[in-house]
Here is the input.
Amino acid sequence: MHLLFFFIYFIIFSSTILSQTDEFGPQGSNRYLFGCNGVQGNDVAIPNSGDFFLVNSGTIEAWIYPFQIFMTGNQKVIINNGQGNQSWEIDLVGCWLQLQIYHELVAYSADADSIKPNTWTHIAVTFWGGPYYYSAQWYINGVASGPVQNKTVTMHSNIDPLIIGSDGGYSSYHDPWYGNIDEVRIWNRARTQTEIASDRFVGLGDGGGANTNQNLTSGAEYNGLVSSYTFNYNSSNVFDDISNHTGTYIGSTSSTGAVPGNPIPYNLALFCPGTTNDFIQIPDNSIWNNSFGTFEAWINILSSANDQTIIQKGNGSPDAFNFFLNTNRHLCLNIGSQSYISTGAQIPIGQWCHVAVTYRLSTGPNVVFYLNGNINSTLSIAATTMPSNSFLPRIGNRNSTLYNSPFNGYIDELRFWQNYRNVDSIKKYMYVSSKSISNPWLKAAYPFDGNLLNYGNTSGLGGTFDNGLTTKSKCRFSGYRGEGTGGPIGINLEAHPTNLNYYSNPNPFPNNFYLSAPNLTIPDNTTVYDSIMVSDFPGNLTAIDVFVGIEHTYISDLGITIIAPNGNQALLLYDRGGAGKHLLTFFNDNYILTSTTAGYNPPWSSFLKPDNAMGTFGNTPVNGKWKIKISDNQTSDVGTLIEWGLRFNASIGIRKIDEKIPNKFNLYQNYPNPFNPTTNIKFDLPKNLFVSLKIYDILGKEVANLISSELTAGSYNAEWNASQYSNGIYFYRIETGNYKETKKMLLIK
Here is the structure.
């Protein structure tokens, strides 16, 4: 019976590749539709709606991951709207995609080798000219595939459900889908190639109420979006946060965790094209009238042709506040009629930088600007008050007919804190996701991860693309820099390395880390060092996490080494990443994703196994000077070490929970079980002994070494974070003295 149980779970989970956690999504990870196994009855059903009757024009798009390409046999149905009176359907026939309208072939793709098995491919088809004659165009990975094709055919309405993964068994000439599907989107207009390419890497509309009052679809980029299915909820429902056309998983289908090479990147940002009417509006609120506060954001500017507004409130006569860059690329803050300009370093073009300004207007008045966690300039000001007005705050442009200052570039993690923050606080929180910050002073926070929701603690502050103007805002969400050029997923796409989440509860980052933000330039063919002095941590090292945030134009130029107080060294990364840019990750010996894992590309957010194991650095004392050594080994590319940090003896959350000496050995069942993604393993140790506690997969391969050290007698709890592991059965085994025991646990994402 146990063998049968193992076999069933092996069949279910063996096709799931190692998970890569993702920053956005209600479950804290990017997920996709799993379980479409080529058998009828395993699909997603969405109740019928007239919104799906795209009688005049439309665009259907999705990411597909076929397990096999069948060059003979029936067409494989990806999405179907209607059985007998079919409105439209998209299928895969061999390597070719096809669009059907009322069971008539309207258009097919032209590239025979563009759809590959076990590879994520973005597909989209646009059609227009209905209801009796249609022109259509296919796009694969954001690039037109074949010519525009034309067909005289009438689209029919129906009362059937929309089905993802089959046609509901209507036709014996159609087979159900065999593979995975993600990011299904339905539009009631024909989209352009640029729009399709630019938005394919975005999980659009995640989060309850994301499109309240058409906050998203009122913008030019997302106008006409009917439904968006991201599959990012781990439940029985398939949510559509655009129009609330919620569906149901049928049969074996479910939402499952992301994989390396999955189409949606770890982190999204806001792209502002830098023209007059392109901005985000935020509701008015009393928080904006505070006499002290802090604005911060990650920004990546693409030009300096004009002043560039980050966030502003007012109409210029005067503004309540305006946090912006001037044409000299200096940070500036206007409060009322007063203007404060940083005298520090300029903001570089084409590089992500963390910027902040904190102000205090009444007591001890001053304004302090920050760049990458360090003071950029401090200015004394005359005591004043924040002007009050009823204008709506704007992100990305100023509300003024006289002073047009649109932002041109990318913005991420824009926040307003209702307190005066110091350098340690700025440094501490600049890389951490707003979604993992619990702080009463954080009033507004916008991660821009497929929505404009506020993740601060003030209700009613969700943003909108609706600018109230005739020409709609063209601001949009972005997954990568350069995504608009089209083409398959690859190392050439530059991810936005601005924030990350540790994914543990409680989240240890940044509170349990010793951090340094040196903003240290890494020149060509040069070795640089930075250090962290630890003086308050008792005992020797048993486990370590290393956090590193580096901006670099060619990350494989670098060798990165950690040096312990006793002089022992560990090489974290050496000449890895191809032509990829940037590094933003946690290094830990227990992770299984490496810098050479296929499809797992720089900046490797958020977990990475070091090239060489760190171990215990020869059981070094924790207290002392820790160093990071970064060697640039090639010419022509430079970068900056912005921040790094260390966490000691808690990488897997091991702690002594009871000093009372138990009378016997005991290994308890993990809790919770099943679990996602963390679980606790408790054990009793009746005497001082060397303890080994390891995790194995169903094939008996060791996947994590939780404990390998001498422990004193007592009761212990070890937490295992399985964010980087696939669904399935695992075994944990303890060995200490003559006592050995193994237990089984189940990870379900």
